[in-house]
Amino acid sequence: MHPGCRIEQVFLCRDPVDFRKSIGGLSVLVEQALGLDPFGSALYVFINRERNKIKVLYWHRNGFCLWLKRLEAEKFAWPRDADGATQGVTLQQFEWLLEGFDVWQKPPHKTLHFSSVS
C-alpha cells in the first residue's frame, strides 16, 4: 500500500462494517472485536454491506493509513464459508481480490513438499 511499508499478513474482516467508521473506529474494531494488533505489520481489510467498497487500515511508522476502493459496477468476492471473524489471505490473493478474482472459488495449486527426488 505504501512504498517501503513491510506487510506480513492480510486479514479480511468477514462481516460488513459501517463505512462511516474511519481510522479511530476501525482501529478499535481491529483491537477489541477482532483481537488483533492494529500496530502490527498487517493489512486489515473491511467491506461494506453492498460489497462494492473496501477499506484497508494499516500502521506505517508513526501513524495509521486508511485506503479506500469503490467499484462502480461490480462487487468484491468475499469469504463465505470461513470460521471466525477474519479470513487470512496472502498479499497475492489480496491483489487478485482487488482485480476482481474470487480466490475461494478456484484456489491455487497445493504446495508440495518433498524430501528427495529419488
UniProtKB/TrEMBL annotation:
Entry-linked PANTHER family: BLR8292 PROTEIN, PTHR36455
Domain of life of the source: Bacteria
Gene name of the encoded protein: tnpB
Protein's UniProt name: IS66 family insertion sequence element accessory protein TnpB
